[in-house]
Each structure stands twice: as C-alpha cells, then as structure tokens.
Amino acid sequence: MTRVAPVLAFVAFLALWAALATTLSEVLLPGPADVARAVAREWARLLEATAWTAAAALAGLGIAFVGAMTGAIAFQWSRRLEAALYPYALLLQTVPIVAIAPLLVVWLGYGLPVSTATAAIVCFFPILTGASVGLRACDPEHVDLLRLYGAGWWQELFKLRLPWSLPYLFSGLRTAVGLAVIGAIVGEFVGSNGQPPTLGYLVLRSARSADTAVTFAAIAASTGLALVCFGAVRLLEARTIGRWHAGAAP
Amino acid sequence: MTLPFVPSLLMALAGCTGGPAATPDAASPAPEAAEAPAAAPIPVRLALNWFPEPEFGGFYQGVLDGTYAKAGFDVTILPGGPGAPSLELMVAGNADAAITVADDLLLKRSKGVAAVGAWPAFQLAPNGLMVHAGGPSSFDQITGGTVAIELGSPFQTFLWKTYAWDGKVQAVPYGGAIGPFLADATLIQQAYITAEPCLAKARGAEVQFLKASDAGWNPYATVLAFADPPPAWAKDFVVATQTAWEAYVADPAKANAELVRLNDQLQPDLMDCIVQAQTPFLTGSEGLGHQSEARWEKMAASLVDLGLLPAGSTAKGAWVELR
User: Fold this and answer.
1) pLDDT confidence of residue B26
2) What are phi and psi of A90, to 5 degrees?
3) A220 lies in which domain range?
4) Any idea what the CATH number is for the domain that residue A186 is in?
C-alpha cells in the first residue's frame, strides 16, 4: 500500500487538474492532455533546453561544491577565519538572485555563464553549512585517539573528519542540487538571450506568446531535471555511506 | 535520432565556447565580404536590447548582404532579452555598440553611463497600450479598469501623470505574458507594435493598439548608441547602418529568414504581421534614421517634468548626427 499511495495521489492530482482545466481557458490552465501534446510536439526543443539548463545547474553545483568544501576546510583549520568570513558566506544566502542577475549579465555576458553563476550562488551555502557542521561532528574521543598516535592536521582531516562529515555533506548536497536547477532557471530568465536555448528561455518565450501548454511542459522538464539530479545524489549517497550510516538517505 | 546540440553542449562544458560573441548563431557575413577593403575589418559587437526580431532587421540585413563588410566592419550581433543591459555591456567593454531607447539613454547618461545616441531606427515610438476590440480607442477614453504595465517605467509615469489616472486606473505588473490579457476582455496592457498585438492576433484575439506617440510620449527607439565620445569608425558604421536599413525596408525577406532561424517563435504568419505593422513606425514622416534636436530635447524635458531627470537637464551631448 505504501508504494501504491504516491501513484494514487498522482492520479488524483491529474484528475483534479483535468477537471479544473475544463473550467478555464487553455491560455490560463492547459489540461494534462494539452501538456502531453505539447511535449510530443516540442520534445526535441525541450530536450535541448533541458540539456543546456542541466549543464548550467551542474556546473554551478560543481563550482559551489569546490568553493564550499575549500571554505569548510579553511574554517576547520582556523576558527578565527570562520568567525571572520562565515557572516559573509551567510550574505550569499540572502542575496536576491533576481536583483543581481542583470549585473551578472554586465559582468559575464549572456548565456551559460550567468545561469552557472546564479546556480553556484544558491548552492554554495547549503553545502558550506553541511560540510562545516560535518567536519566538526566527529567524536572528540576519536580525535584524541588520533592525536595520541601522533596524527597531523591533514591526517586527522582525511582519515577522520572528512569521512565523518559525509552524511552532513550529502544532506547539504540534497538541498543544493534542487536549488541548482532553480538557480539556473532564475539566471536564464534574465541572462538567456536564446543562445543557447534553455528551459528559462523557453518558459519566458512561451508565456509571452500565451503558449501555456509549452510553459507547463518546460516546467515539467525542469521538475524532472531536479528529480533526476536529486536521485543521482541519493544514489551516490547510498553507494558511498549507505551501508554503514543508518541516517543516510532518509 | 540525432541531437544536433550535443556537440556544442559538450564544447560548452569543456569551456570551448564563450558568451554569444563566440556562437555561430549570429548572422554570418555573405560572400560579398570577400570584396572588403584590404585592411583588416574592424570587429564590432552590437548588443541588442531584445531577442532577434524584425525591429532589428536592418542590422541583420547589413551583416547578411555584406553592407557592413564592404564598409570595413566584422559585425557580431549579440541578442538581448528582458531588461537587457545593452548600454552597460558596452561601457563595460563587452560590446562596441548598443541598441537602446532615447529615454533609457538619457536616464542612464544622468547616472554616469557614458553613451551617446547616433542613429534611430524607429521614428515613431513603437510602444503603446493594447486594448481589446471595442474597448477605449484613445488614451483619454481610459477612465478606469486595470492596465498591466512595467511599474515605475517612464512611460507608465508619463501616462498616469498626463491623464491623471491615480486612483482611477489600477496599474498591475506586466510579466511579459499575454495570457492574462487574452483571458480578461477588460484588461489593457503595455505593448510593442512588433510583439504583443501580433501575438494576440495569432491567438485569435481582436485588438487595438494605442500608439504612445498619440499620447505625447515619443522617444526614438532602436537607437544605435556608441561610447561617449564615439569611436573614430562610428560615422562609417552609421552610414552603413542607414544603407542596410534602407535595403531591409525595401526587401526584408533575406533578413527575416535569418530572424526566423534565430528566433523559433517567429512563425511566417507572425513575421508578416510584425513587418507590416512596424514599417510606418520606422519611416515616420521624416524618413528612416532622421534625428532632430527638438525631438531629443522634448524627450529630455518630459523626463525632467516627470521628475526622472534633475531640473535643468537637457539632451545636449546625448546624441550626435554622423550621417
């Protein structure tokens, strides 16, 4: 029953959506069948746009991962550095992406650089927080044991703190990977000029011409992309720490 | 099944492509380019303020028919999008020329953006309000209801002040989608003659377009701008631009085919509607590319009157005649 419940909920959602769509103009709310027809008609364009958005989101996630891990390790190395820089890292979390995206266009030009940057900005903080907490979460007795045997700072990091941080890091990554897709699309709303075509561009242009079924299809593609990325992180998590960490992938 | 975008995607991921300047999608020079002067052509990156559409047709014409190449230019057109910061891209060094609107140019100059207008494609302002057929047929007939418009824009400020719409006409944000307009027979929205009216007609709606110029708001549009002071090649570029636009107005077929290739939203029917609608706005009564001090100063005075430019501001130095 547990496995059937989500399917039943989805069917009920589709039925409700279809019923609601019959009461409204297709311009305002296309039905599931309209969206399916739009997907069938525009699949090549959707696939290409999804691929470009995925490229920006994953590149942004990668940049954020490298930056956040570097930051977290630096914070672990020096508490003073953490005290000095963490408030500014927090600022990144509060930056209104829509407001700074036009500036990113001026600085970086149109296209993937802007959407990659916006994806990186929104991903950075969850990864930094997960990694920072994780690097500090190990049992102090284990630290004492390593130090008793003369382990240096780097040995302590690689043999104890980094492995111990993985559950926390994956928790941050699971949050970040969904945000990466959202961040990329927000960047595309402002920074995409159609070269290359992306999901944000497709949403913008189809909404402009009231081709709402294509807008919904593009939204569905972005949701699908986020789910695939989330699933990939879950799979990676299960393959790396799933066997020995009970709290992994709840 | 072939997926033609995969190689370029892999190249982009490998860092092999830059921004749009490096993409091959912009119109490529025609074979006539081979007749260009022996000196190396001057590379010019032209930043548009919207997606590739017929309102920029003459620039694409100049690239396609070799007009720019013959004049010694290697032009790369950089398409824009919503809120495109074309002037900022230019002054930041990411473009060599930019397309803007007269009011935007004057406002940004007052904020320190060193740019100067040199050649306007649109004699009549192509913006205005889109109204359902049977609705108000002039601005002064609008005495209530809701208008979807870019809030705080100079045009919105001008309309509400000129027609005293405060407290009578409700302004709501325009997000760029015409769906709400199509679904609400009473809604009025901002529009560009090259866009929304034709898009709405393609969706079966009967609409009227109230020209901003009829309300007294008439900035030059699709204005070719350079850094201030203009580079030495600006005069030759303006002359080539005038030639290219005259060719485009006479026969837009070649450039329009390229625009359809670059912008998949431009279906042939839609393109015909847009080209037919925009031509009178391009030529106006003075002819393509004409500028007058009186028009520029009237725009500056309007912006001062609206409180958007400091008192005493003029258009002096904001535009140059290079033809």
Assistant:
1) 43
2) -65, -30
3) 42-240
4) 1.10.3720.10
Distance from CA of A45 to the nearest CA of B (A): 10
* Residues B115 and B233 both lie in one domain: yes
Q: Is residue A214 part of a domain?
A: yes
CA B217, B218, B224, B226 dihedral sign is: negative
Mean per-residue pLDDT for B116-134? 96
A1 burial level (CB within 10 Å; 0-12, 13-18, 19+): exposed
> Cα A153 to the chain's mean position, in Å?
32
As a whole-number percent, the residues of chain B with pLDDT over 70 amount to 88
pLDDT at A176 over 60: yes
Same domain? For B85 and B232 the reply is: yes
Q: Which residues of B touch A197 (CB under 8 A)?
A: 264
Which residues are CB-neighbours of B158 under 8 A, at least 6 positions away? B215, B216, B217, B302, B306
Say yes or no: B259 contacts chain A, CB-CB below 8 A.
Answer: no
Q: Model confidence over A116-146: pLDDT tens digits?
A: 999 999 999 999 999 999 999 888 899 899 9
Q: Averaged over A62-70, what is the pLDDT?
A: 96
CB contact under 8 A, A113 and B19: yes
Greatest mean pLDDT among A203-207, B229-233, B282-286 lies in B229-233
Whether B258 and B119 map to the same domain: the answer is: yes
Split into its structural domains, chain A has a count of 1
For the stretch B185-233, pLDDT in tens is 999 999 999 999 999 999 899 999 999 999 999 999 999 999 999 999 9
Residues of chain A found within 8 Å of residue B3, distances taken between Cβ atoms = 44, 47-48, 51
**What is this model's ipTM?**
0.70
State the average pLDDT over residues A3-22: 92
User: Which residue in A51, A103, A194 is closest to B9 by CB distance?
Assistant: A51
Separation of CA B62 from chain center: 16
Q: What angle (nearest 5°) sits at the alpha carbon of residue B277, between those of residues B271 and B279?
A: 100
Structure tokens at A148: 């008793």
What CATH number does residue B110 fall under?
A: 3.40.190.10
Residues B57 and B82 in one domain: yes
Q: What is d(CA A208, CA B144) in angstroms, rounded to the nearest whole number? A: 25
Whether B116 and B132 share a structural domain: no
Query: Domain for residue A169, yes or no?
Result: yes
Asked if the model's pLDDT at residue B90 lies above 70, the reply is: yes
Residue B148: what pLDDT? Answer: 95
Task: Name the residue facing A55 among B12, B94, B263 (closest C-beta).
Answer: B12
Predicted TM-score (pTM) of the model is 0.80
Q: Are residues B76 and B173 in the same domain?
A: no
Instruction: Give the distance from residue B271's alpha carbon to the nearest chain A alpha carbon, in angstroms.
Output: 13
The answer to whether residues B41 and B112 belong to one domain is: yes
Position B254 scores a pLDDT of 94
Residue range of the domain that includes B79:
18-124+219-305
Answer with the one of B215, B238, B267 that is the final residue of a domain. Answer: B215
How distant is the Cα of B269 from the closest Cα of chain A, in angstroms? 14
Name the residue with higher pLDDT: B10 or B39.
B39
Please give the residue of chain A at the shortest CA–CA distance from B79.
A193
Could you say which of A25, A51, A59 has the minimum Cβ distance to residue B5?
A51
CA distance A225 to chain B (A): 16
Contact B89 A105 (CB under 8 A): yes
- Residue whose token pair is 């266009």: A105
Task: With H, G, I as helix, E, B as strand and everything else as coil, classify residue B3.
Answer: coil
End residue of a domain, out of B215, B246, B276: B215
Number of inter-chain CB pairs under 8 A, A vs B:
117
